[in-house]
Amino acid sequence: MIRFLDEHQYVADEEMVTSLYLLLKLNKPLLLEGPPGVGKTEAALVLSQWLDTRLIRLQCYEGLDINTAVYEWNYQKQLLGIRLQEGSNLTVEEKEKQIFSDEYLLKRPLLSAITETEKPPVLLIDELDRSDEEFEAFLLELLSAFQITIPELGTIKAVQKPYVILTSNRTRELSDALKRRCLYHWIDYPDMDKEMRIVKKRLPDIEQNLLLQVVDHVHQFRQRKLVKTPGVSETIDWAESLMALGFREINKEAIEKTLGSVLKSTEDISLVKTDLVTS
Amino acid sequence: MEKIQAFQTSSLSEGILAFARFARSHGLNIGIQETQDALKAAEQGLLASRSLFKNGLKALFCTSPEEGHLFEKLFILFWDTNPIDLEERKGQTKLQGSVNKKANSSLVMLGVGHTPPGDEEASNVSGANAEERLKKTDLSMLSLLEADELEKIARKLFRQMAIRMRRRMKQHRRQGQINLRRTIRKSISAGGEPIELFHRLNTPKKQRLIVLLDVSGSMDKYSFFLLRFICALRENFRQLEAFVFSTSLKRITRALDTRDLGMVFRNISEHADNWSSGTRIGECLEHFSDSYGKRMLNGSPVVLILSDGLDTGDAELLGTELEKIHRRAKRVVWLNPLKGSTNYAPLAKGMRAALPSVDDFQSAHNLDSLLELENILSNA
Fold this sequence. Notes:
The complex is a heterodimer of chains A (279) and B (380). By secondary structure, chain A is an alpha/beta fold.
């Protein structure tokens, strides 16, 4: 498995792989927590590639409700349907039954994940900490029993149990009830060696010297009190932009021009710049 | 319960069971479900090598990075202890999960006790009855007997306040977007003509509240009531985070979870070793934004600071840190018990530095002034 992940440009440590393995074997959802930009979402992507199955992604946000997450009726079609029925001799009950049938149902990510028939898909519920607590509570039924209840249709059970990966940036504490239904893995910023391997994977053409300098600098940035600590994706972006501009090592000019791709706040940028000038 | 360790068990599954029990007794939240999953994993041969075993159990048993660290320790302690060193280790291993029960008395030290009887102050206030009078009495001037009485009144009034705030929130609801789903459903009987429009209710946002309570020496006489006040607030702010600070900052949200107030006090005094010491507000606020800011200051919460602003630390730091918080909070409310006295002016260095970033600067010296906070909070 590690080898596969490796081939797909994902460098994972043993702990991570064990968690993924347990996810497959025990069929329990996996909750990945960690700072932004350490590859939580990427893990789900790679897993779906490995299993050669569909990835269904639900991006959470504040105010996310059941209509956008689970299902919605196709109102326009329903209205037309009602119009078309006008001439027929159906009773009201029959009409209602027809209007609320599968045909008029719009499947949103969660519903389409459990009605997938061919292969168990990978369901990614991204940045769950952004959603409201109410939505979190709603997920409980799905995560433990893999079923969803729709009032008009009844309870729908998963045909193929999806592999669920949840991610969170820990901007708020998730409820204990949810955590107990999941496997848990904390992804932290990688160490120098691992980060170099990751960048190398993504940018095979990078020169060793530049790579070392980039990763070293990013690690120094992380030590400091910055408003936004750069993640691995920022490291990759930075290395990429340095290469695109043809820099072969990090010097004053390089930093001047490209710092914006690794530090994302003016305070941070000016702080680092003044430090570099004085040193 | 007798705690067994790995060498005392005869099979792997028995070992896992014992380990689950061991970890639970040290504060990890492991139920039957988790244990079953662990056994199931073991059955499938998942836990073949040692590191696989450890990582697997870690994924199953832990729910936060802090628990992860605890787990690492417990794992080594449980599986690697052999009978020979056990004798030495006994009694000296104390893990973070197990509560260190210092026979600390609860908060008698809060200063409610050793106050000179404050009849003077109290009788100066002309009130219709004793209750009214007590409500206006400065909290620091209470005698022990009156404190008891006031506590009873406070409990009643705080509860009323909590109910009132909830009710007001409900009345604020207005009609929102059209609820298409219901409109269509009801229109079927009219042949698809949407005659009646249904609206979606705009549910009021539950405001998040962060409370920072100063428990330094100068606040001694007030902290007890203020803490009770925080408990009352907890009932209608579902997401309330509470901290106490003096020279250092402690999170007490978990301790407030218990309903019983006596328990709350005992819990907090166990956590906080810095009651009634000096104050370094700036550093505490810095600590707050560093370790909790990212997590708690999103979605613009209301930040409530209960302190007298008598700072022994760096006033400039206090100013910049509070400004940082102010930028991300919806409102910063500062309650200062000293403001109650008529000749008070915010001259203290710390207080002056803080004021530019404070939206509401209120007094908190008696019960009435605390109850006034209701208006500020429900408008926020």
